[in-house]
Design brief:
This protein has 2 domains: 5-56; 60-129, no CATH class. Helices cover 39% and strands 17% of the residues. The protein contains 3 helices and 6 strands.
Protein backbone atom coordinates (compact mmCIF):
# COMPACT_ATOMS: atom_id res chain seq x y z
CA UNK A 1 0.00 0.00 0.00
CA UNK A 2 1.15 3.49 -0.82
CA UNK A 3 1.87 5.53 2.28
CA UNK A 4 3.66 8.53 0.82
CA UNK A 5 1.69 11.33 2.50
CA UNK A 6 2.18 13.61 -0.49
CA UNK A 7 0.49 11.14 -2.82
CA UNK A 8 -2.22 10.35 -0.29
CA UNK A 9 -2.96 14.04 0.13
CA UNK A 10 -3.02 14.52 -3.63
CA UNK A 11 -5.49 11.69 -4.03
CA UNK A 12 -7.80 13.24 -1.44
CA UNK A 13 -7.51 16.70 -3.01
CA UNK A 14 -8.03 15.35 -6.54
CA UNK A 15 -11.14 13.49 -5.40
CA UNK A 16 -12.37 16.70 -3.78
CA UNK A 17 -11.70 18.70 -6.95
CA UNK A 18 -13.47 16.12 -9.11
CA UNK A 19 -16.43 16.26 -6.77
CA UNK A 20 -16.51 20.06 -7.06
CA UNK A 21 -16.74 19.79 -10.86
CA UNK A 22 -19.93 17.75 -10.81
CA UNK A 23 -23.37 19.29 -11.05
CA UNK A 24 -25.19 19.26 -7.70
CA UNK A 25 -27.77 16.53 -7.19
CA UNK A 26 -26.63 14.41 -10.16
CA UNK A 27 -25.60 10.76 -10.08
CA UNK A 28 -22.14 11.85 -11.04
CA UNK A 29 -22.08 14.12 -8.01
CA UNK A 30 -23.23 11.30 -5.77
CA UNK A 31 -20.45 9.02 -7.05
CA UNK A 32 -17.79 11.70 -6.77
CA UNK A 33 -18.93 12.42 -3.24
CA UNK A 34 -18.54 8.75 -2.35
CA UNK A 35 -15.11 8.63 -3.98
CA UNK A 36 -14.02 11.60 -1.90
CA UNK A 37 -15.38 10.19 1.36
CA UNK A 38 -13.72 6.89 0.62
CA UNK A 39 -10.36 8.56 -0.04
CA UNK A 40 -10.64 10.47 3.24
CA UNK A 41 -11.54 7.30 5.10
CA UNK A 42 -8.61 5.38 3.64
CA UNK A 43 -6.00 8.11 4.01
CA UNK A 44 -7.21 10.30 6.84
CA UNK A 45 -5.29 8.42 9.50
CA UNK A 46 -1.97 8.38 7.64
CA UNK A 47 -2.29 12.04 6.72
CA UNK A 48 -3.14 13.08 10.27
CA UNK A 49 -0.16 11.11 11.58
CA UNK A 50 2.15 12.73 9.02
CA UNK A 51 0.95 16.22 9.90
CA UNK A 52 1.50 15.57 13.60
CA UNK A 53 4.97 14.16 13.00
CA UNK A 54 6.01 17.23 11.02
CA UNK A 55 4.47 19.71 13.42
CA UNK A 56 6.15 17.95 16.34
CA UNK A 57 9.52 18.54 14.69
CA UNK A 58 8.82 22.08 13.58
CA UNK A 59 7.53 23.66 16.72
CA UNK A 60 8.10 27.27 17.71
CA UNK A 61 10.28 27.71 20.77
CA UNK A 62 11.45 30.85 22.51
CA UNK A 63 14.71 32.38 21.42
CA UNK A 64 16.84 33.85 24.18
CA UNK A 65 19.54 36.41 24.33
CA UNK A 66 22.20 35.99 26.97
CA UNK A 67 21.57 37.15 30.50
CA UNK A 68 24.44 39.29 31.74
CA UNK A 69 22.92 40.11 35.11
CA UNK A 70 24.86 38.30 37.86
CA UNK A 71 22.12 39.20 40.37
CA UNK A 72 19.36 37.74 38.22
CA UNK A 73 17.21 35.28 40.15
CA UNK A 74 15.33 33.79 37.23
CA UNK A 75 15.67 30.17 36.40
CA UNK A 76 18.37 29.96 33.75
CA UNK A 77 18.97 27.88 30.72
CA UNK A 78 22.54 26.78 30.77
CA UNK A 79 24.34 25.58 27.73
CA UNK A 80 28.01 25.17 27.05
CA UNK A 81 28.74 28.83 26.37
CA UNK A 82 25.40 30.36 27.11
CA UNK A 83 23.29 31.61 29.98
CA UNK A 84 19.80 32.94 29.38
CA UNK A 85 16.50 33.38 31.19
CA UNK A 86 12.91 34.56 30.81
CA UNK A 87 13.90 38.21 30.91
CA UNK A 88 16.16 37.71 27.90
CA UNK A 89 13.52 36.33 25.54
CA UNK A 90 14.00 38.08 22.20
CA UNK A 91 11.54 36.24 19.98
CA UNK A 92 10.64 32.86 18.58
CA UNK A 93 12.48 30.27 16.55
CA UNK A 94 11.84 26.81 15.15
CA UNK A 95 13.22 23.91 17.14
CA UNK A 96 14.13 22.05 13.96
CA UNK A 97 15.16 24.81 11.52
CA UNK A 98 16.89 27.23 13.87
CA UNK A 99 18.50 25.05 16.54
CA UNK A 100 20.66 22.01 16.74
CA UNK A 101 20.26 20.38 20.14
CA UNK A 102 19.64 23.72 21.79
CA UNK A 103 22.46 25.47 19.96
CA UNK A 104 21.37 28.28 17.63
CA UNK A 105 22.06 27.75 13.94
CA UNK A 106 22.64 30.27 11.18
CA UNK A 107 19.18 29.33 9.97
CA UNK A 108 18.20 30.17 6.43
CA UNK A 109 15.05 32.06 7.28
CA UNK A 110 16.40 34.34 10.02
CA UNK A 111 20.14 34.18 9.53
CA UNK A 112 20.47 33.20 13.18
CA UNK A 113 18.85 36.42 14.44
CA UNK A 114 15.47 35.81 16.08
CA UNK A 115 14.98 39.26 17.53
CA UNK A 116 11.32 40.19 17.19
CA UNK A 117 10.40 37.01 15.32
CA UNK A 118 6.84 36.00 16.27
CA UNK A 119 5.78 32.40 16.84
CA UNK A 120 3.94 32.54 13.50
CA UNK A 121 7.08 33.60 11.66
CA UNK A 122 9.36 31.10 13.37
CA UNK A 123 9.14 28.39 10.72
CA UNK A 124 8.16 28.26 7.05
CA UNK A 125 7.34 24.58 7.30
CA UNK A 126 4.91 25.20 10.09
CA UNK A 127 3.43 28.20 8.28
CA UNK A 128 2.83 25.99 5.24
CA UNK A 129 1.00 23.48 7.45
CA UNK A 130 -1.26 26.05 9.03
CA UNK A 131 -1.90 28.21 5.98
CA UNK A 132 -5.50 28.22 4.75
CA UNK A 133 -5.79 25.69 1.98
CA UNK A 134 -8.70 25.15 -0.38
CA UNK A 135 -10.36 22.71 1.94
CA UNK A 136 -13.75 24.39 1.75
CA UNK A 137 -14.08 25.23 -1.90
ZN1 LIG B 1 10.98 24.57 11.14
ZN1 LIG C 1 18.76 36.09 34.03
ZN1 LIG D 1 15.64 30.83 12.61
Amino acid sequence: MNTDPVELAREVLDAHAAWGKTGPGTDECEQASHAFTSAVRRHGYDLARAVLAVSELHRPIRAYDECHDPECRNEHIELEDYWGCDSTVIGWACDECCYDNGNPLECKKHGGDHTGVTADQACSTRAALTKDGQAHS
